[in-house]
Structures are given as structure tokens and as C-alpha cells.
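Justification of computing resources. Each target in the renewal requires a structure prediction run like the one illustrated here; the chain below, 800 residues long, is used simply to show the kind of job we budget for.
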Amino acid sequence: MALEKPYPIFLSLSLALLLHSVVAQPSKNNIISLGTSLTAVENGSFWPSTSGDFAFGFRKIEKEDGFLLAIWFNKIPDKTIVWSAVLETTGDALVAPNGSKVELKSDGLFQLVDPKGDQIWSASPSGNGTDHAAMLDTGNFVLVGHESQNLWQSFDHPSDTILPGQVLHSPAQLVSRYSQNNFSRGKFLLRLQDDGNLVLWTTRYPTTSANIPYWESNILGDGFSLVFNKTGFIFVQNSNESIVKDISSYAPSTQVFYHRAIIDYDGVFTHYIYPKGDISSAWSIFKNIPEDICQAIVEYPGSGACGVNSYCTFDGGMKSCRCPDGYSFVDPNDVEKGCKQNFVPQSCDETSSQAHLFNFSKMQYTHFPRSSYDYFKAVSEDWCKQVCLDDCDCAVAVFRDGECWKESLPLKNGLIDTAFEGKAFFKIRKVGSSALDPKNSHVKNHRSKLIIIGSTLLGSSVFLNLLLLMASSKLVIYWSGHNNQEDPKTSSSRPRINLRSFTYDELVEGTNGFTEELGCGSLSTVYKGVLPDIPGNLVAVKKLKLVNETDKEFEAEVSAIGQTHHRNLVKLVGFCNEGEHKLLVYEFMSRGTLASFLFEDQRPSWHQRVQIAIGTAKGLLYLHEECNTQIIHCDIKPQNVLLDDSYTAKISDFGLAKLLKIDQTVTTTTIRGTKGYVAAEWFKNKPITMKVDVYSFGVLLFELICCKKNFDMNVEDEHKMILIDWAYDCFHHRRLDLLVEDDEEAQIDMKKVEEYVKIGIWCIQEDPSARPTMKQVVQMLEGFMDVRNPTDLPSSENQW
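Resulting C-alpha cells:
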């Protein structure tokens, strides 16, 4: 049963800790006296807060000759910016030239001047009554009056970010930046409106006017505020200080983690956290609104979550904009500008039909909601494609269960949505189909020149002309056949999904001859590769050592894997299927395996381990219940859970056992899986179900709780040799503190430690029916389902 959120406790916390930053008092060592200034120069000085957590000063903009007047987190490597001064006229971030100066003048005026001394920005008030300025440990920069009151503060003038302790009173708004490193005004707004409704808007870019709302709190009234309180909770409250909308709650302690919430450049309002004191870490996502930006933004007018002629995918907490086959980005450095066709489009000249010059590239789960110009029902897929071929204005045909939509350029609202059980057919010109194609016109002109030159040289002899004619005919036939061969990457035998077919030579070159090994198992070896036309360039190339399948069977299995889309699964980019060479190309996971992160490097924080446990569980839930083809992983272990830049857990090797059609992996038994993570039913000749993955996850969960391997012969105490036995003993004797005795952060959260140990015990029950499903595991891990006390021998009444 789902637990009710304890709003009374939450409310008391908010009332106790909701104090506005105006009461925060500067200490002597962060006071900025009248007459003090900073100059915008490379590696210039700044004004830190007392603890040094925050700093105020100039930040150099990447690849530009200019500086932001900004506030940033000062103790983490990337110096994340949380506030910058903006131009009142446009709302863009103010970019100050080299040599500019910000100064608190002797008369109390706080201003920014260019190298000539001309004012380009100032803070209100105009200096009357200002005694000093201060950079506070909350991230708030304040101008303080003679009576210790705040005359001006950055918290009242947010750019795209809010911090714990910050309150926005309606009407107020946050404006996204244009891109990760472009601080110009972006395309999205978060507004707390006059009527109290909190709304995410797209804008009519490049204007500042709001366009389409894509998420809202649906609360109306007077006197509302958006509060990010000092415990890390974000909520909307009314004038009576009652919470009316929970935005992000139950975040880890602000004493242990830095927090920030931002309307990101991709339109997602994101609550980020970062472990204090861990310079090797990265910001991780605690909460996203909306959960899937691609599906949330369907607009008219407008192009959707991405630019025109592109499509949107959402994975790993961030959206990705991509071009379909036959299209490329207008500006590779600014994907938001959309895509353009790489071929000459179909002519609408009525004198000659060009339908025969085009075919289709198919993409599953892809559609363009609210943008079609024609619609039919009770038709076949072939009819839908043909009606698009016959229509010169049709660029894409979308088909689903007898329904057919026609889309014209520019394409809008494109997205991949696994809930849409249809497909999009992109009309593209056949290779070598027309002299209008620039690539083919060059070949044709080259052929013509050869023939003309040859005829001129040999024209004195009829016999030689005859020979020339025969030779020229042969040459034309050769060139025509050569240039009309189908591109192997678009062969009809490849899986018709959004995967790329690589040649073996491409992967040999991309991996530098398979030289940099990332990992090796009994069935495959993984190498690091660089492929220039893949987003991010880096990939992981897995060479399979054993494949007992025909080419068609292999590609059918690859197709099934390629149709999985989830933020907690490693993404399959493409494949190679050339005779004995069977390879899979995956996205590169920069942080490596969970095994190295958990057992080799510095111990991850408790919060990171909790998020990894939840992410891994959600990935398994997707494989078991949510993807089209049910997949039992059969080998869940830390080596098969990979981590990205943000330490998001992603399951790898899912579907590999089925793909390889084998009866053993790294063990010497006839079972699949890895010793120590294998469920009892493998040994008892019982049917194998999804519950084998639940068992393996339970073992993994204990490893995450304790930061210890499931089996370790080198421990001094033999009772600790088998982790799951030791964990159960600690639970039975009520000594769970022994599991996390060296982990101060986990000791602060012993209630969750106990809950997670109980979940782990349920997962490793010998009887599969006594184990929960992965859906129940996720609900328990996230606190939305009660965790019952496990028993030694579960009876029928306490089975799931």
C-alpha cells in the first residue's frame, strides 16, 4: 500500500526553516566595504562567502571575449553559475568586456562599468543608505543598509536558478539560458503567475512572449510563493503559509549536499544535488519536471522540444535532438536550429512524376503530433506509403493500426515515444536516382566529358568510333550499376529501427585496431572507440566471441534490443554483422562499472548508492514489464551496471544471453549468471522467470548498502565472508549499524538503511514466489510501499 506523504511534518519543517534570506547576517570576513571593486580579467579575484561555498565576481565565457558578472559554487571543479546580471532591455545575460569593473562606490552605488568608465549595469537602490555588501553562505549577494536591512539582494532578481533559502513571490519567473555554455536568454520560462499557478512555458523565440504552457501546478488564488526551503524541499505555498503544491520533496540533507534548481536550457525544471567535499563527483538529478520533456512539448505554433525537421529523445535525464536519415543539422554547434534535407526534394512539376525516384527510411515509435496536414483511417501500411510517394508535398508518412498521417516540411513536434505503437516513413531520394542530385550530377558530367573527349580524338575513323561507342556503353553501364548499388548501411536486411549498421573496417579504424580494452568476459570483449559522426564521439564496441545464429536471427535479436529506450539502460547505437564479425556498438559510459566505483575507488556517498539502487531497479522493471519484448537479464551484477557522467546507473548486457543463445556464462555450471548472484531455481531444474533477476538485484542491493563484495575470502571475520548471510545476521540481532559502521552519512539515515536491508532480504528468498516483483521493489525503494518484516521461511500468506 502506498504511503501518504507526511504533510503535517513537512509543513512544520517549512514553517521553521522558511525564513527569508533577509534575516541572514554577514560575518566580518565576508563584508565588502564602500570603495571596494573587482576587475574583469583572466583568473581575476572574487568575493567569497564566509565558508567559501559561493563566490561573486567575473566569470570568463568559454570561446568568447567577455565576462559574466556572476555568483557560482566555488568549492566544486566546474564552478557552477547560479546567478548572473542581465540586460533589462532584452533579458540576456550581460557580457562585460575585458577590463570592466564592478564597484561599491563610496556613496553606496553598486555598479558595473566598462573599461571607459561608462555604467552598463547597476543594482537598485541608487546607493542611498548602503553601508556595505556581502556574499552570504546561502548564495545570496546583498547590499546592506546602515540599520542592517537588505536594500538589494540577488535572491530577488533570479536568472535561471533558485537555491535553498530562496523564495519567489508572484509574479516571478526564471528564464532558461540558450544552451549549456550560451547564457543568452533561452526558449523556456518558469512563471509563478499572478493567479498563483506555477507554469512552464515555451516562448515565441526570439521574442520574449510566452507561447505554449507544457506543465502547470493547477493551483489558483492570491498571495502564492515558490519556496526552496533550507531543508531542500521545493513547494508552492499560499499566503497562509500552507503548502498547496509539492514540487520536490524528501531530498537528502542540505548539510551534506549542495542543492540547486534550474529551468535548464532544454526546458526541464531540474532539482540537482552534489555531495559536499567530493571534488570527483558531479551534479546528479534528484527531480525532473516534466518527467519527459519530449512528450510534454507539443506546440502550435512552434517546433516542439527540438528544432524543425528533427526528433526528440529523452534519456538519462536530458533530452537529445537528432536528425532522421537523409537529414543533417543546419548548425552542428546549435542543434536547436533543426535539420535540413541532404537531397533534392520531390518536384511538384505536373509534367513528370518523380515518385519512382524515392523510397522510405523507417523509424519505430516516431511521430509528429498535431502537425499533420492530412489523415486517413482504415488503410494499409503500403497504401499509406504510396499516397505519400504520390504527393510531392509529403515528407513523412506516419502509420499506426490502420491510421495514416501525412507530414510536410518543416516537420514539427518530432519525438520518439515508445507508447506510440506506430512508425514513421521518411521519404528520401534513392541513391543515384536523378541528375538533379548534386552527387550524381558530378558523376554524370564526368562520364559525359570522357565520352566527348574520346569521340573527338578518334572521330577520324568510323571503325574506331564504333569501338568507342561500344567502350563508352560499357563504361556507362559500369558506372550506372556501380552508383545504383544499395548502400550497405541502408540494406533491407538491417533491423529497421533507429540503429546504425557499421562495417567491420569502420569499427577497426574507430577503435584503432581494437587496442584500448575496457573489459573482457568469457563471451565478449569491450573496446573504447571514437566515431566522429556519433553524438559525443566516444563509443564502447563489444566484440561477441560466440554467436550461434544466422545473420537474420542475429539482426532480429539486435532489433529487439535496439527497441528498448530507458534512462537506466545503456543505449545501443549500432551493430556490425559481417560473417564471423558480430559486434555491438554502445554509448560510452564515462564513469565505468559500478564494480570499480563501489569496490576500487573512493567509497561513493550514501545518497549516490541509493540513487544507483533505484536506477538499477527501474531499469530492470522496464525490461520485465514495460518494453515490447520481455527481457530477463540473467546476469545482474556490479560489472553489468555502468555509470554516466552524472553517476546515473545504466544496465548493460541486457538481452545478451538470449542473443548468444548459450547455456553458460562465466561459471563452469550449466546455468547462466555469475556465481554469488545466482538464484536457487537454476540448480533445481525449475522454470526460470523474472524472479532470477530479483534475486540478483537483492545481492547487488546488499553490496550497495555495505560497499562490500558479496563474497570475500580475505576478511578477518569469517562471519562476514558471505555478505548476504552477514547482513541477515545483523538484521536478526538488530545490529544494522555494523553494516555501515564506517559510513557517517548512512548512519544518519539508519531508517532507510533498515528498509533497504529488509528489501534485500525479501529479494533473496529461496522461493521465487516469496520474492517481490521489480515494480514492488521500486515502490519500496522510493518509499511508496510498506516494507513488511521478512521471515526465515515465508509462508503462503506472506508471499507477494
